[in-house]
Automatic annotation (TrEMBL):
The lineage of its organism: Eukaryota, Metazoa, Chordata, Craniata, Vertebrata. Keywords: Metal-binding, Repeat, Zinc, Zinc-finger. One of its GO terms (molecular function) is zinc ion binding. Residues 189-207, 242-261, 295-314, 348-367, 375-396, 400-419, 427-446, 484-504, 512-555, 593-626, 636-654, 698-717 form the NF-X1-type domain. InterPro entries: NFX1_fam, Znf_NFX1. The keyword Transcription regulation does not apply. Pfam families: zf-NF-X1. Belongs to the NFX1 family. This is NFXL1 protein. It comes from the Eukaryota. GO terms for cellular component: nucleus.
Length: 760
């Protein structure tokens, strides 16, 4: 039973936590959910990509893009894109519609409902008798730009209208297809927008065209299509309407202004002269004409006119006052009354005047008639000229479908409701100020200032969004006093909530005298320990709590140069552990033998004499127990008979047994003599003083005394040399024959003997 209860408890806990998490995500999700710095970086890249074609291919001026850039910034800013109908954020994945007049963005579902409600109100039979006969328009909720019934949006398109249901791409402007806009510029110039699909108006046309000035005097120059109308600033020179002067204004567009010069001009009748503007030469004075008419009895009564005065208005046939009889009388006599009844229709439009023909207006109608009131519910007998209004109040419902007309004697065309609507708007802050109406109220027209913490940075948002919009980023420095021991806090921008942790160096004086170099730790966050028992399955697992507390300064880490025990090196050690240490090397001090060093690990050495050198050996060092290993004189193979000692070794007195140079005799020589002799002395000491037994290349024995190295090649042995016929002979040194320097030729006798022998 306990296990099943615990299992059921865990299941309910997981379900409640999942529901709470989903609610939080739905409530606080917005069109931009990235981190602020990453979002700004991404936004900058997307804007640069969108404006690349405009700025690179056509060398467009970026200042012309500011209005479009403002709309695109609002598209990225969290909460800036707000549907004015439902007062909710417009997310990336929601279908939207953009007004072509004010470029305001609405949810597609909201604008469809708005259009249906607007069309129903304006085409209601209570307000218009032509229901179903006219194509009534519906207005934009913001700018009141009117659209036809057929223009009611039914599908979700991107801003340029090319792609239906554009996909959500985090590297594109929200609700954009990423293609070139290609919308016609306004006013149309024949070119198309080169930006990528974007919200807001298209920038001015950046194309270059060749055009001349307004007055056509200057030479045609290449200019931006959006600024192709230009002035050369020279005098216009066109003839003005007065026909006498030319326009002196600088080159301008449109018609020339009226001539500003003043001249003396006569009136129409020519009696008066006055200074007037040259642009208005026709003017009338205030004098009556007064010329004698053709009848000779009357004068013209017209005020200042041109041309002849005309005939006398009293000449010819004239009618009596009632118009029934005509008389031909001189212009000096008045027309008499005819004596018949007047019979003119009175002001009531029903009865006629019963008086005899008379001059002047007819009297009011005094006949008594049966009159019906305006609403048609009551009748009364009364004079015809008096209107009859009953006291019955109209009970019809006005077009607001809420209030009665309550107008006395209403004929049925009840006026619109004159009461104020007063319903709370979607912003939940204001009430509808419009007259009482049916359907949804218009969006709240008010805007609310959302301020930063210091109040110097302000953004305007639609009323009702101030509770969910993020405060603007303020570039003013925070002016709060520091909460740590520093006199001034680190510079940072205005913000809400607590100031960020102080990152200045602590700079408190430590016990060693140095300043603490670590960042300020007066308000360090420390995790709070302890287990928390959940109150129920609805409670989210709590994150570990952190508390702010002041931490002590850490140990001093300032590097202090410290020499090791054996004075081998100086290493920087942290101040808190700056004590003499062993560097783990060998001691290396020269022992008393002056040949070896102390092989102990780096250790402390006591100075026996205060004036002694710091590198001298001490009593703690080891004693040398080695044999003497000093190098012997060259050629001496014997070891030193003494133990390791300072100074030079004694002379070697042992005898050396060596062979002579010719390797035939064995000699005994003192080691000292042999090692101390130079090359010549060594040559003599090692020689046996006998003839060298070696044989020369010529075959003779070397004549030199026992020597080292190779025998000399200049053999001095005498040999016999004969000529070719063997008759002559001569003794010559062997070395010369070997070198080929000497040869014995046959003489004349030899040649003669050789000739005779050949003859025989």
């Amino acid at each position: 039973t306990e296990l099943s209860s615990q299992k059921k408890f865990d299941e309910i806990k997981k379900a409640n936590q999942a529901a709470a998490k989903k609610l939080v995500e739905d409530q606080f999700s917005s069109s931009s959910e990235d981190d602020d710095e990453d979002a700004e970086l991404k936004q900058g890249k997307i804007l640069a990509k969108t404006f690349t074609i405009y700025t690179s291919q056509t060398d467009g001026d970026v200042s012309d893009l500011e209005r479009t850039r403002q709309y695109m910034n609002e598209a990225f800013q969290s909460g800036a894109m707000t549907c004015l109908i439902c007062i909710a954020s417009v997310k990336r994945n929601q279908a939207v519609w953009s007004c072509c007049g004010c470029f305001c963005i609405f949810h597609l579902v909201c604008i469809q409902k708005w259009a249906r409600d607007s069309l129903f109100l304006v085409s209601s039979p209570l307000t218009d008798d032509d229901f179903g006969k006219k194509d009534y328009p519906w207005p934009c909720p913001k700018c009141r730009f009117e659209y036809k019934r057929s223009e009611t949006p039914s599908r979700y398109y991107c801003y340029c209208g090319k792609v239906e249901n554009p996909t959500v791409d985090p590297w594109l402007v929200p609700h954009s297809c990423g293609q070139t806009c290609e919308r016609e510029f306004k006013p149309p110039c024949g070119h198309k927008c080169l930006l990528l699909c974007h919200p807001g108006p298209c920038p001015p046309c950046p194309k270059m065209v060749t055009t001349t000035c307004h007055c056509k005097k200057a030479k045609a120059v290449p200019r931006r299509c959006s600024a192709k109308e230009w002035s050369c600033r020279l005098p216009c020179g066109r003839m003005l309407l007065c026909g006498q002067h030319t326009c002196e204004n600088p080159c301008h567009a449109g018609d020339c202004q009226p001539c500003p010069r003043v001249s003396k001009q006569r009136c129409i009748c020519g009696r008066q002269t006055a200074e007037r503007l040259c642009a208005s030469p026709q003017w009338q004075c205030d004098q009556v004409c007064g010329k004698r008419l053709p009848c000779g009895n009357h004068t013209c009564e017209q005020v200042c006119h041109a041309g002849p005065c005309g005939d006398c208005p009293r000449s010819g046939k004239r009618s009596c006052p009632c118009g029934k009889s005509k008389f031909t009388l001189p212009c000096t006599e008045d027309v008499p009354t005819c004596g018949d009844s007047c019979d003119k229709v009175l002001e009531c439009g029903i009865h006629k005047c019963s008086q005899r023909c008379h001059r002047g207006p007819c009297v009011i109608c005094r006949q008594e008639v049966e009159k019906q009131c305006r609403c048609g519910k009551h009748t009364r007998r009364m004079p015809c000229h008096k209107p009859y209004l009953c006291e019955t109040k109209c009970t019809k419902i006005r077009d607001c479908q809420k209030h009665q007309c309550r107008r006395k004697c209403c004929p049925g065309n009840c006026p619109p409701c004159d009461q104020v609507c007063g319903r709370t708007l979607g912003c939940r802050n204001h009430k509808c100020p419009s007259g009482c109406h049916r359907g949804s109220c218009n969006p709240c027209p008010e805007t609310v200032d959302v301020k930063c913490n210091c109040g110097k940075t302000v953004i305007k948002v639609p009323c009702g969004r101030e509770r969910t919009i993020k405060p603007p980023k303020c570039r003013q420095l925070c002016s709060r006093p520091p909460t740590c021991h520093h006199p001034t806090q680190e510079k940072h921008y205005c913000h809400f909530g607590r100031c960020p942790p102080c990152r200045q160096s602590c700079q408190k004086t430590l016990a060693c005298g140095h300043l603490c170099p670590v960042p300020c730790h007066d308000e360090a966050l420390v995790k709070q320990t302890g287990l928390h028992q959940s109150a129920g399955p609805w409670e989210q697992p709590s994150e570990p709590a952190f508390i702010q507390t002041a931490l002590p300064c850490p140990l001093c880490e300032v590097p202090i140069p410290v020499e090791c025990l054996g004075q081998h090196e100086v290493s920087p050690l942290p101040c808190h552990c700056a004590n003499p240490y062993s560097c783990k090397r060998f001691c290396g001090r020269l022992l008393d033998c002056q040949n070896h060093t102390c092989m102990k690990e780096c250790h402390r050495v006591t100075k026996l004499n205060s004036d002694a050198d710091g590198k001298k050996v001490g009593p703690e060092c080891s004693q040398c127990e080695e044999e003497c290993a000093k190098p012997r004189p060259p050629g001496c193979p014997h070891r030193c008979v003494l133990p390791c000692h300072p100074g030079a070794c004694p002379s070697c007195l042992q005898m050396l047994k060596i062979k002579c140079h010719c390797r035939l005799s064995i000699l005994y020589i003192e080691c000292l003599k042999l090692t101390g002799a130079d090359l010549k002395e060594k040559e003599l000491l090692v020689s046996c003083r006998n003839q060298c037994p070696k044989e020369l290349p010529c075959g003779h024995r070397c004549k030199e005394v026992c020597h080292s190295g190779s025998c000399p090649l200049n053999c001095s042995q005498k040999v016999k040399l004969r000529c070719l016929c063997k008759r002559l002979k001569k003794e010559i040194q062997c070395s010369k024959i070997q070198e080929g320097q000497v040869s014995l030729e046959c003489d004349a006798l030899c040649k003669e003997m050789k000739r005779k022998a050949s003859e025989v």
